[in-house]
């Protein structure tokens, strides 16, 4: 065999080995992403169950307050409590809603673009959304800490409500993690 043939075979073998190693990294990355997705799903499912419990509690409180009003014994602070529960329901439902894609998605024009443009738009919108929701989490925490520092109490029940704001920040963080995972997934996915 001539020297160029041996060199060519060695080069092909090295390329094959590099390709197999690259696929190994891709497989490992997919396995890691799958585990992260499962953890994120569980986290958001737990929050969704809590949101459901809060929704049922809010409805029950409103109904009970309506019944007790008939006997001139309304529950004090019902509107405050229902408002707090509604905030938790909203924040804790964001992540699972993003995972399940139950939001409004207008893709009439989007689907007409080629794959590269669609991927670019998806990455840009994902980064924008992650930035927005992350900023929202930070602002919720800052606001809650300022309420705590100033000992601010609710109007009717006169109890501190900064924990509700911190709890809501956790729910919004579930949205951030979901958006981040979906962004990473769109970047490593072969199309």
Characteristic key phrases:
elongated; 191 residues; disordered N terminus
What is the secondary structure topology, with strand pairs?
Layout: H1 3-70, H2 78-100, H3 115-149, H4 162-188
Account of the 3D structure:
This protein has helices at 3-70, 78-100, 115-149, 162-188. The chain is mainly alpha-helical and 191 residues long. The two termini are 41 Å apart. Mean pLDDT is 87; it is low at 1-7.
What's the helix count? 4
Q: What structural class is derived from the secondary structure elements?
A: mainly alpha
Order of helices and strands: HHHH
Overall number of strands: 0
The radius of gyration over CA amounts to 25 Å
Mean pLDDT: 87
Runs in which pLDDT lies below 50 for 5 or more consecutive residues are: 1-7
Short description:
The chain has 191 residues and is mostly helical. The protein has 4 helices and no strands.
